[in-house]
Design goal:
The protein is an alpha/beta fold. The protein has three domains: about 90 residues, FAD/NAD(P)-binding domain; about 120 residues, 3-Layer(bba) Sandwich (FAD/NAD(P)-binding domain); about 45 residues, no CATH class. Helices cover about 20% and strands about 35% of the residues. The strands form seven sheets. It has a five-stranded parallel β-sheet with strand order 6-13-7-8-9. The chain has a five-stranded antiparallel β-sheet with strand order 20-21-24-23-22. A four-stranded mixed β-sheet has the order 15-16-18-19, with no helix packed on it. About 30% of the residues are buried. Its EC number is 1.18.1.1.
C-alpha cells in the first residue's frame, strides 16, 4: 500500500489504522526505521536534516553550483563525511561537535585527533566542546548562537546529530521501549507476542541497531517464525562501522568498550591500527 501512513495501533484488537482504512492482522511486523532528531534549537524551517532522497535532492538544489558557507551540526559518521565532501567541493565548511574531537563516541582520542587534523587540513573549520543554543535568521542567511556565547553565520545549516525512533505506535500498543522498541534478541518479538520489529526502530539489550547489515538476518528470522518453520534464531553481532572518507578511511570492528584502554599496534603517517582486549582476547579493532 504505497503512500499510506499508519496512524493507530490497537494490539488488543489486532488492528492497524491507516490513512487508507483499518487492517486486521494475525501477526504484525514494525519496520518503521528512524527519523532525524528534532530539537527546538534547530528549527526545521532553517536547518536541513538528511534522511531521505527527497531531502538530499532538495539540499543539493539549494547549494547549487556556487561556493556556500555551510555549517554542519554533529560530527558523527554522516557529519564527518558531509563536511569532507563539501570542503573538497570548494565550500566554506564549519563542523560543530559537542565532544573534544569528531566521532568521539566511537574513536579513541588518538584516532579522533588524527581525524580532526586531517579534516582541518582538508579545509574544514571544527568547533569542539560546543552545542547550539539556537539558529535564527540573519541578513547573511542564518546565525548560529553557540553555548559558548560565540556566533557563526551560514547560508546553509545541516543537522547530523543522530536519529530517534518514532515510538507513537509502540506506545499505543503498550509495547516496551528503551530508545527503540524492545525485542527478544533471538525471535525479534516485541513484548506483545503477535508483534515483531526489525531495523532502525528496535532496541537490543538497551542499544539501538542503526545499521543496514543486520536487517537481512533479522527479516529471515521473523519470516521463519511467521511461517512456522524451524530456525536457529537471530544472532546479533556488531556490524563493522566504516567512515567513507578519502582523507582517513577507517573501519571499526567488534564491541568497543568506551571505558577500556586501546592498545596501539601500529602508528605511521599512513596507517593506524589499534585494539582493545579483554582477558587476552581481542574484542575490538580499529584500522585507519
Amino acid at each position: 500500500m504505497a503512500e499510506t501512513v499508519a496512524v493507530g495501533l490497537d494490539a488488543s484488537r489486532r488492528s492497524l489504522r491507516t490513512t487508507r482504512g483499518t487492517l486486521r492482522y494475525k501477526s504484525l511486523v514494525l519496520a518503521q526505521g528512524a527519523r532525524p532528531i528534532s530539537l527546538p534549537s534547530l528549527p526545521a524551517n532553517m536547518v536541513w536534516r538528511i534522511n531521505t532522497l527527497d531531502a538530499w535532492l532538495g539540499l543539493r538544489a539549494q547549494i547549487g553550483s556556487q561556493s556556500r558557507r555551510i555549517v554542519i551540526i554533529g560530527a558523527g559518521l554522516v557529519g564527518c563525511e558531509l563536511a569532507e565532501d563539501a570542503a573538497t567541493a570548494g565550500h566554506d565548511v564549519t563542523l560543530i561537535t559537542q565532544g573534544p574531537y569528531p566521532l568521539e563516541t566511537l574513536l579513541p582520542s588518538q584516532a579522533g585527533m588524527v581525524l580532526q587534523q586531517r579534516l582541518r587540513q582538508c579545509g574544514v573549520t571544527i568547533i569542539t566542546n560546543t552545542t547550539v543554543d539556537i539558529v535564527k535568521p540573519s541578513p547573511a542567511g542564518k546565525t548560529i548562537i553557540l553555548s559558548s556565547g560565540n556566533k557563526c553565520d551560514a547560508e546553509i545549516v545541516i543537522s547530523t546529530i543522530g536519529l530517534e525512533t518514532n515510538l507513537r505506535l509502540a506506545h499505543m500498543a503498550n509495547l516496551k521501549t528503551k530508545q527503540g522498541i524492545i525485542v527478544d534478541e533471538a525471535t525479534l518479538r516485541t513484548s506483545n507476542p503477535s508483534i515483531y520489529a526489525l531495523g532502525d526502530c528496535i532496541s537490543l539489550n538497551g542499544q539501538t541497531c542503526r545499521y543496514i547489515a543486520p536487517i537481512a538476518a533479522q527479516a529471515d528470522a521473523i519470516a521463519h517464525s511467521l511461517l512456522g518453520l524451524p530456525h536457529a534464531g537471530y544472532q546479533h553481532t556488531s556490524p563493522p562501522i566504516r567512515l567513507k572518507s578519502r582523507i582517513m578511511p577507517l573501519e571499526l570492528r567488534g564491541t568497543p568498550d568506551p571505558r577500556a584502554e586501546w592498545d596501539v599496534v601500529e602508528a605511521t603517517p599512513f596507517r593506524l591500527l589499534m585494539q582493545q582486549k579483554q582477558g587476552g582476547i581481542i574484542t575490538a579493532t580499529l584500522k585507519a
